[in-house]
C-alpha cells in the first residue's frame, strides 16, 4: 500500500491518510515516553507488540458489540482505522489504587477500589493532561450530557471485557485509559473507542507475583519493556512461546 500524507505524529504513533475516504492508517512507533515526555527512549519492537495487542483487544470489543475505530491490521506496525473526531479527553477507569490516584488520595498501591472509578483528563501535553470533572467538560463544551452517558457506558463495557480477558490469563487489570471518537454517518453521530488499547495505556500486574507487565516497567526502570509486553502477548496466544513478537513468526 502506498504511503499517504501524514496527518499527525504523536509520542507513540503516526497517523496517515487512509487508502479510502473516511479511513486512516495508524503506525506504531518504537518510542517510549513517560512523565509527559520528560523520560524518552526507543525500545526495539515495542511498536510491533502494541500493534498486535491493540488489534487483539479492539477486535474482541468489536466482536461483542462495543464499537471501535479499528478495521484491520495491515502489517507488523500499521492498522487501518475509521477516521473520527477525537473528543479531547482521556477516559480513565480504575479498579485498584495505583499511580496518580495513590499519590492524590494517599491510598496504598494495589488497594481494591469499592467499584470501578471513571476519571477524565483534558488532552493537552503542554498542560500535562490535567484531571477535569464532568462540570468542566459540560462548561467548555467538550462533550454533551448524552455523550458523557455514552462514554461512561463504553468505558465500563471495555473494563468488563478487559478485566475478564486478563483475569483468564493470570493478569490483574489495575487501570487503563481510552480515547473516544465521534464517527459521523450522514446526520447520525455515534461514539467509538479510538486510539489504542495496549500495555502503554493499561496497568497490568501478574495475579500471583504482582510483577508489572505495562509501561511502569519503563517509568520505574524495572527491566525490559519488550519482555513485559511480549509476556502479555504470549499469555493471550498472540505470539508463541519463545518469540518476542518482532520476528516473522508474528505475522498472521
UniProtKB/TrEMBL annotation:
Its domain of life?
Bacteria
Q: In which pathway does it act?
A: Purine metabolism; IMP biosynthesis via de novo pathway; 5-amino-1-(5-phospho-D-ribosyl)imidazole-4-carboxamide from 5-amino-1-(5-phospho-D-ribosyl)imidazole-4-carboxylate: step 1/2
Q: Which InterPro entries match?
A: SAICAR_synt/ADE2_N (IPR028923), SAICAR_synt_PurC (IPR033934), SAICAR_synth (IPR001636), SAICAR_synthetase (IPR050089), SAICAR_synthetase_CS (IPR018236)
Sorted alphabetically, which SUPFAM superfamilies does this protein's record hold? SAICAR synthase-like (SSF56104)
What Pfam family does this protein match (any one)? Answer: SAICAR_synt
Q: Which enzyme class, named as a word?
A: ligase
**Which key words are in the record?**
ATP-binding, Ligase, Nucleotide-binding, Purine biosynthesis
Q: Which GO terms describe its cellular component?
A: cytosol
* Domain (SAICAR synthetase/ADE2 N-terminal) ranges: 6-235
* Database matches in Gene3D superfamilies: ATP-grasp fold, B domain (3.30.470.20), Phosphorylase Kinase, domain 1 (3.30.200.20)
EC number(s) recorded for this UniProt protein: 6.3.2.6
MF GO annotations:
ATP binding; phosphoribosylaminoimidazolesuccinocarboxamide synthase activity
Swiss-Prot/TrEMBL catalytic activity = 5-amino-1-(5-phospho-D-ribosyl)imidazole-4-carboxylate + L-aspartate + ATP = (2S)-2-[5-amino-1-(5-phospho-beta-D-ribosyl)imidazole-4-carboxamido]succinate + ADP + phosphate + 2 H(+)
Q: Name one GO biological process term.
A: 'de novo' IMP biosynthetic process
- Membership in a protein family: Belongs to the SAICAR synthetase family.
Sorted alphabetically, which HAMAP family does this protein's record hold?
A: SAICAR_synth
**What name is this protein filed under?**
Phosphoribosylaminoimidazole-succinocarboxamide synthase
Organism, as annotated: Donghicola eburneus
Q: What is this organism's lineage?
A: Bacteria, Pseudomonadati, Pseudomonadota, Alphaproteobacteria, Rhodobacterales
Gene this protein is translated from: purC
